[in-house]
Amino acid sequence: MSRRKHDPSRSLAFLFLLLCILLPHVALSQRLEACHACVPTSVRNQAAIGFDLGQSYGTSVAYLDNGTTINLAKVAGSPKYMALTERLMRTPPLESGLRRPFWRRMTRLAMLTLGLPANREIAVLAKMVADLKAETKAALGAPFGMVVVTAPWQDVWRDDGTLDSDLYDALVLAGVKPWTFDLGGGPVYMGELNTVLGASGRWLCEPYGCGDTDEDDTYQGVFFISFTNRSLYTSFQRARCFYKHSWQSLSAIDAEYGLDEMAKAATPAQFWDAVRARLASRVAEHTKHRRHGHYTITVAVEIVVVAGEAADNPDFLGVVRDVVRDIPRVHRICFDGEVGCEQGTAVKADVELVVLDDPAFAAARGSALLSRLVLEGRWYCSSAECCAESQYLKVGGPWDKTHVEL
């Protein structure tokens, strides 16, 4: 009797099914069963998709009904794409009157209707989105619907709505249906800092859709560091519900501090010293903005969150720990005139360091989580319990895929 040839694809399919059944229903930590029980099976069976258009690459993640996340695709950004993200970060927002005249909106709409980009920036973004979409579709083996997109927060896009957003046009041209904050206005993407906070289990707030019951105002500042092979992205922001925009941040993308640049340095130590100096200068810059009351980031840094494809490099993490330990001292020096500063009580003595597991896909995991909530939110049960305070929303729930260092 002949032996049947083993088909590895069947084993993988069985393993995938087994994981989906046996893994804890960690997605329920984002929404109470009082809400989730009314979601129909047809919606539960859909995979929620999140895209991350990072500073040097793009990733996609699927978030299943039981809370399982699946890394789908990772696409390298072209030189044009990386140059664009860095240049946009240095570009100040336009006055609303320059960005939103009627004729400009109509021109964009006409170009979009014809399937053409209205400018070169849209063309570059659309190419990146199309590549990520193709890889994602191949990984899923099927088409997909609405996508929540995250990207480095760009001040130049701060006032963009769907009628005048380069990113929105790029998504539509690439055949991707984006989720937007509100119809006709509001951003069409999430800042990476927000989605990484969501992926780390921070600021999940009340169950999605509870509106004003969300505790969206805190006095904790967050320093986000995304370290990739090609660049270093840093951003400061005040923490709030991860699916709500903070609107303002202090951000920078530096191509000269990507991990690949170490090969150009005289020694590895010289490169890491330069990275340490850059991170320290960013903390000092944030402190200067605090001192003069700029934006909404006038709160002290209490949390440092680290992600990006190269973020698990041991030497890099050593540099980050050095910078984190020095943050309270920098704040005290720059705020020497404040009451209590002489005794070292003006800021917290310790700053929490959060390093995400699987850091290359962290931001996409957060956007996929929001995609899950948006997908099922309108089906939630209508009950008072649905928006009651939930212990499931606390940090450290069963789905929290981070490790914390002090």
From TrEMBL:
Q: Which N-terminal residues, if any, form the signal peptide?
A: 1-29
- Origin species, per record, is Phialemonium atrogriseum
Keyword annotations from UniProtKB, A to Z: Signal
Q: Can you name this protein?
A: Uncharacterized protein
